[in-house]
Amino acid sequence: MILISHRGNIEGKNPERENHPDYIDEAVALGYSVEIDLWSIESVLLLGHDEPQYRISQHWLNERVSKLWVHCKNIEAIEWMNTIDGFIYFWHQEDTVTLTSFNHIWAYPGKQPISNSIAVMPELYNEKVIHCKGVCSDYIKRYNI
Fold first, then answer.
1. Residue 64 burial (CB < 10 Å; 0-12/13-18/19+)?
2. Mapped to the 3 state alphabet, what secondary structure does the chain carry?
3. Which of 4, 74, 81, 112 fits as disulfide partner to 127, beta carbons 3.0 to 4.6 Å?
C-alpha cells in the first residue's frame, strides 16, 4: 500500500509545520511519500495550504520527485506542472474523485470504498481502506502495518 503523509504530518495535524520543506523532508526520511500544496505565482514556486508560504525551487522538487504527490493550488501551478515530466500532480476541490497525472484515483474524504484509489483522510469517516491502492493521512503512521 502507498503511504502518503498529508503535508508532512505523520502522527496528527501540525499546522505550524505543514508544507514546510524541512517537515516534508522529515516525512520522506521516514520512508513516506508526501502530499504537498504547490502554488506558482509569477513563476515563483511556493508551498502552503491556504496561502503560499514557503519558497522552493524546481531543483528542490526534482530531488524529491519519486516521493511527492503535488496538489496544485492555483491554475498557474497546474499549468507549470503540466510542462515537466515525472511528477504525480493533481487539482481538486471537493470533487468525489480526481485523476492524478499518473491516473491514480484520488478520492475525497468520506467517499470510500473505491477500489484501487488513494483514500484521503479515511480516519475522518472511519473508512475501510482494504481495497485501496494507498492512503493519504495526517496520521499515516497508523497505516504503516
1. middle
2. CEEEEECCCCCCCCCCCCCCHHHHHHHHHCCCEEEEEEEEECCEEEECCCCCCEEECHHHHHHCHHHEEEEECCHHHHHHHCCCCCCEEECCCCCCEEECCCCCEEECCCCCCCCCEEEECHHHCCCCCCCCCEEEECCHHHHCC
3. 112
For the stretch 18-68, pLDDT in tens is: 999 999 999 999 999 999 999 999 999 999 999 999 999 999 999 999 999
Predicted local distance difference test score (pLDDT) of residue 94: 87
- Residue partners of 15: CB distance under 8 A and separation at least 6: none
Query: What grid cell was written down for 138?
Result: 495526517
Across the range 90-112, mean pLDDT stands at 95
Contact 115, 130 (CB under 8 A): no
